[in-house]
Specification:
- InterPro entries: Porin_dom_sf.
- This is Phosphate-selective porin O and P.
- By secondary structure, the protein is mainly beta.
- The chain has a single domain, classed as Beta Barrel (Porin), CATH 2.40.160.10.
- It is built from 2 helices and 21 strands.
- The strands form 2 sheets. A 16-stranded antiparallel barrel has the order 3-5-6-7-8-9-10-11-12-15-16-17-18-19-20-21. Strands 13-14 form a two-stranded antiparallel sheet.
- Strand 6 and strand 7 form a beta hairpin.
- The two termini are 24 Å apart.
- About 2% of the residues have low confidence.
């Protein structure tokens, strides 16, 4: 979408809501997040705070993220950096009792990137059978669905979700989803057919297998690169006392194997699998979130071994509340201690010539402390320490430094 048109639409919406508020500000009401049910990561798209006006069927919301950081790699630093990482707007509408619309528009790094991450209509037929169509966020892992900044204690998004898997990865398509509640359990599924990857996952400026490069192909919102659908499926279950377990798969053909009916290559696939787990330890209120993913890409024989056929990686977050209560005038604030551990192997395998291990792996530890003056706002201080080993296994380059910032719904 062209920027002037997008800005015009947003301006009209904001002016409309402002005018409605001037008529009678008491009509403004905030729809809180639902905390009464057993919610899953797939519910995150609607489980957000929205602001609506009277009986108008349209509600708006969003979140903002900004931060400062000072990082250095092997003693070399770019100094103090201030960043406005993203501003995200939600627009939702209940068209009828069983037809809903939601859009998510994200502005990254000021307006360096403007993306429609979600814009779909949901038709609710039965709790176990619902149709979704439009711009869909492919549910690979948990982070891709549940990525809002205010929900996380860390400034950086997980490396495995953003640089191995394509975070906030959206495509045009259709699919089905459903849920079943039974006592302390909830069972759910999602399955979608959408446009998918292209050959940029191996033909890119990174000079390695890099799935996020395919996000540069904005044509995927109007046509498929090769005419083959991408299949994304996920099943999840949650127990009230134990937590949520999710298993997901995303795969399809990524190359252009024919041109004007002429076969020019065999069909080459990319297949990804992910498992995610979320839980809270009742005795200590310790929150645990983990995700592990596998990537397999059919690489042409003409490519060198620096292009990995297999990649694995994941992360684990542990968040421990250490103080609850009034602080600086905020009655229900919470201070958390947190730590994230991350690992990615960009090229899992061995060299053909020597049989030695192909390295190119990444490891990171990020301790931090956060303050939540309200449940919808978080102020974060992180210390990041990374080890990055190249493909030959040379001594690791090390990155370290502090990050400070905030993220808030509005």
């Amino acid at each position: 979408m062209k920027r002037p048109l997008l800005f015009g639409i947003l301006l009209l919406l904001l002016l409309n809501f402002r005018a409605s508020g001037q008529i009678d500000s008491t009509l403004l009401r905030r729809t809180p997040k639902d905390t009464t049910k057993l919610l899953l990561n797939m519910d995150a798209v609607y489980n957000r705070p929205f602001l609506s006006v009277g009986k108008v069927p349209v509600a708006v919301g969003g979140y903002v993220e900004a931060n400062w950081q000072h990082l250095g790699t092997d003693g070399v630093s770019e100094g103090h950096q201030f960043q406005m990482r993203r501003l995200t707007l939600f627009i939702a509408s209940t068209i009828s009792r069983r037809i809903k619309f939601l859009s998510e528009i994200e502005f990254e790094d000021g307006t360096k990137e403007i993306n429609i991450e979600f814009a779909s209509v949901d038709f609710e037929f039965h709790p176990l059978l619902n149709l979704r169509g439009g711009v869909i966020m492919n549910p690979i892992g948990a982070f891709n669905q549940n990525h809002d900044g205010p929900k996380w204690e860390f400034i950086d998004r997980p490396v495995s979700a953003t640089q191995m898997l394509p975070a906030t990865w959206s495509n045009v398509g259709f699919g089905l989803y459903g849920k079943l509640y039974k006592k302390d359990w909830v069972y759910a599924y999602e399955v979608y057919l959408t446009n998918g990857f292209d050959d940029q996952i191996i033909s890119n400026t990174q000079n390695k297998t890099f799935l996020p490069a395919t996000k540069l192909n904005t044509d995927r919102f109007e046509e498929s690169f090769n005419g083959e659908p991408l299949i994304t499926a996920k099943v999840a279950l949650r127990n009230k006392r134990i937590g949520e377990l999710g298993l997901s798969y995303m795969g399809g053909v990524y190359n252009k194997f024919q041109e004007d009916g002429l076969i020019i290559d065999k069909k080459r696939r990319v297949d990804t699998w992910a498992v995610d787990f979320t839980s809270t330890v009742p005795a200590t209120n310790t929150y645990i979130r983990a995700e592990w993913a596998f990537v397999h890409v059919d690489i042409p024989d003409s490519y060198s071994q620096q292009y990995g056929k297999r990649q694995v990686g994941g992360y684990m977050d542990v968040v421990q509340p250490i103080r609850r209560g009034s602080l600086l005038g905020f009655e229900k604030s919470v201070i958390n201690a947190a730590v994230r551990i991350e690992y990615v192997d960009w090229n899992k395998g061995t060299f053909i010539e020597t049989g030695g291990n192909i390295r190119e792996d990444f490891f990171s530890v990020v301790p931090g402390i956060s303050w939540r003056p309200t449940s919808q706002t978080v102020v974060r201080l992180n210390y990041r320490y990374n080890w990055q080993v190249d493909i030959l296994g040379n001594p690791a380059s090390k990155t370290a430094g502090f990050q400070f910032g905030f993220s808030s719904y509005f």
